[in-house]
Amino acid sequence: MNIGAMIRIIHMLWLCPLLAWGAPATLNFSGPLIQGGLVQGRTVPGSQVEVEGRRVRLSDEGIFLVGLGRDAPAETQVRVRLPDGRIEEKQLSVAKRQYDIQRIDNLPPSKVTPNPEQLERIERENRLIRAARQIDSPRTDFLTGFIWPAQGRISGVYGSQRILNGEPRQPHYGVDIAAPVGARVVAPADGVVSFVHEDMFYTGATLVLDHGHGLSSSFLHLHRILVREGQRVRRGDPIAEVGASGRVTGAHLDWRINLFDERLDPQLLVGPMPKAEALKSRAPGLEVGG
After folding, report:
1. Which of 134, 289, 126, 171 lies closest to 219 in space, CA to CA?
2. Contact 156, 227 (CB under 8 A)
3. Which domains, from first to last, does the chain contain?
4. What confidence score (pLDDT) does residue 24 get?
5. What is the band of 7 on the pLDDT scale with cuts at 50, 70, 90?
6. Contact, 8 vs 61, CB < 8 A?
7. CA quadruple 16, 22, 25, 27: dihedral positive or negative?
8. Sign of the CA dihedral 287, 245, 4, 39?
9. What are the pLDDT digits (tens) for 81-140?
10. Range 275-285 average pLDDT
11. Closest by alpha carbon to 256, among 201, 195, 181, 180?
12. Number of Cα atoms under 13 Å in the Cβ half of residue 215
């Protein structure tokens, strides 16, 4: 099954919860049970929820999030202590995925094997963006649903094993959208700007939106950032322009989704790229994100 067909099937699953919200059960789930998926849980307000032994935030309406990473195990345990003291547990069965291998050559050697000074800079910048992704706000902006932040040809997909200048490197954790420099980037869902950096070593001009409960969107390799830290944005608001900053071989947007440190697949939130828009981008070459 190709990636497009898989995404269409999984996108439909969002419309068919595992258990309907109105059912009498006290622990319900909705979303794709597959590596890279974001699952919404719902239980009795006032409960305490743990995912794999880690306490997670529960909204006033009883909503919580479960992130299934790229290499999530076959089962994920959710444990709920209800307000009356009863315990409910659920083992979520997680489908395994096969990932592409992406080979990218002719990158500047310093971008593949940084020197000690560059490594120090990279670690400093990584600490900054990790801190932004640890924000655990009570807002539930993610409930607005997600749209594509940019439109164009998909030139890189989540989970791909990267071979850079012949050397194996980390997998790609986002989706790359090839578009011209200056093309509009919009907020994929409601949120608050939690991080702005004009020039990071790998990712260039970088922006992070906090959607609440530890869920964030990151936008990499930007040309221009149109918002400031602390600014509230609505789904569809312009927030940046596509660029070619950082480690790239062509202009594109690298869009990533994190639930704290868990890296998730953005395509599972939005479904296929609209065909009419996908055909507009004919940018040559193979783009690479940080």
Report:
1. 289
2. no
3. 3-93 (2.60.40), 101-278 (2.70.70.10)
4. 40
5. low
6. no
7. positive
8. positive
9. 999 999 999 999 999 999 887 777 666 776 677 889 999 999 999 999 999 999 999 999
10. 44
11. 195
12. 31
